[in-house]
Amino acid sequence: MKEFWRKKRMNPENKRILAIDIEESTPSWRHLLIKAKLIYYFFQRHLFNLWLKVRLWDEMPPELRKLWFLNREGGMFREKTYRMCDRRHALKGSSILVPGAGFGHCIFQLAAFRPRKITAFDVYEYSKEWDFVAQTCKDRFGVEVVFEKGGFETVESEGRFDWIISDAVLEHIKDMDGFLKSSNRHLKDDGWFYASFGPIWYGPGGDHVDWGGEMTRWDHLICEQRLYEERFEKKGLGAAAGTLEGDFLFHGRLFSYLRAEEYFEKFKEAGFFMDLGIAKVNWFARRILKNDPDLSKKLDERNVPKFDRFINGFLVWMRKSK
Questions:
Q1: What is the CATH number of domain 2-206+257-320?
Q2: Is-contact 277 68, C-beta < 8 A?
């Protein structure tokens, strides 16, 4: 494997992340540590859900009150979220479609469940990384992984997938209606859709740029557009340091620009039944907003939803409606 790494000469940051993914997908002392943390987070999640719902009840849209609420990530490690998928419909022996797969991040963790086949696509091509991921999944887990450049049109047939697994994609989809309808068509009648997404555009850090401080997390919403663009160009790659692909996300305007409740409206319209939805609350962001009335006023002037302002993102498990 070391020889493979050397020959491929892939992007160093992608290489680093894939190395971590391999480690997380392989049983080790790290797994034992994660399992120990999961026990702690199991109790913490229940307590925070009750506490946050009481504190936020009047601020959340009525249709989102049925969600669970986490304080930030709440221990929802990828191993945990994929096991929650597995409990709903077995990943082992299943056919999985991964839209917006990027360079293959998260594929190893899915392959560890031994699905029958993983099909993945992305509008950008990462040929070196894809070759490595596909070969490693075959060698380690005996799982076939196929990558395609493009969108749903690259997938051979519809109605044949047990699962669609989407991580950090929905916040970047411009045509959400089209994306969700295509997802529905590619699932079997008893198929499932899992997605983790965020930060959402109207939340803290919704532009996926690390500007170097918590007080700047809403600048993409309140800065005059020309000034914001000048700041980005001046800071250059430094502004994108908090993301994998911040520069082309910014220049390509690759964001859905949807409000929190709009996501869930579109899920329903596309023919999905919500089995479980979780909102990740940034309580620190909410405290900043409470203590800075001027910032809140600026967000009011831009019609930024009050609930979205302190939401990091969501996790959803949905069934295809029959």
A1: 3.40.50.150
A2: yes
